[in-house]
């Protein structure tokens, strides 16, 4: 029997396995995916948000705890557990030395990501390099890893973990960490959560999944059925407006279109529906997926002109281009008359200012609903570019309620040997909204806590048995 069983293969699970092994526990990690698809959604990431009080190698200036907290509080609308959020924030300031020890390397922000140069540390080689480094380190430390081993259910007794059941096999351990992701790839559960809208549509049928197809929420549903305490709204998620041509699964970051704040967004009816310039893109990009999900047919269109080209990270798919705005409307399948009414009204409402995409500038609209409060410039310079966008779900927020020791709770009482990390508990910190890199901060902090606590619980059980 192993001391600690870790279920999952992403950042949080790997952090838990490494910490438990460093604490002296024998560790078995079960990854549902085959080896070539290992890493969960973490393989598609590229940075984590880090608190720091002074410049640190790849991080510029300072990003103190209170500013991080205020950023998080703003994007969540206060829907966050402040104690756990501050725990994550403080842990983000000390984790990188440990990460380097396990082979993770960092690099400065690249062109197009400079808004994050003060707040986020980028992984050299991206998330795939990070998870590969962690897997190599885990193997070298003696963590046993089994691929293509999805767990069907957990066997519990009075809130205590007893065994995991995987494909007819019963796997016992003295303690367990569940870090197997949310339910974003479970199309039936998404339908159940989102239901029909007032137009009779099933919105979730048009969602694309930015991350892994293996996050089906099997253990989340199992633990809910066994009375585990939950937190969060099943419709809240890290939901980004991504290129409508993206694949159903595993599109990753390259399917994101970062031009929204530089232009206008219209729906299928050719009408704007939200302020494109209300805040810096890293603090608002994850809002747009949900906004698009609320539009007819769950689709929106990002419209920019030649002035915006080269000011954002180029996406994997090329834009639809035209020499005139009516031609662009027709190429995108939009009614040119309504489209031009929208664009003409926007252009007329733009007020002169000093455009600067690196600050909250004074380029704004006046007398327009919804307004564009920053970076508003007329869309008037050909060629014109358009991107059709659909909601891209990265991970869901509804999960298991936990505490500062990463324990799963049942009826308010914490388990003494079952712990949770990563997407399965992120809703404790992220009730809604998102700010770039915070998901990796949560997974790293709680993965490390869960691994340490699981090792301690296993060692206690062994000591009690000897006594």
TrEMBL record:
UniProt keyword terms in alphabetical order: FAD, Flavoprotein, Oxidoreductase
Cofactor: FAD
Highest taxon of source: Bacteria
Gene Ontology molecular-function annotations: oxidoreductase activity
Domain FAD-dependent oxidoreductase 2 FAD-binding: 3-429
InterPro entries, alphabetized: CobZ, FAD-dep_OxRdtase_2_FAD-bd, FAD-oxidoreductase_2, FAD/NAD-bd_sf, Succ_DH/fumarate_Rdtase_cat_sf
Protein name: FAD-dependent tricarballylate dehydrogenase TcuA
Native species: Ramlibacter pinisoli
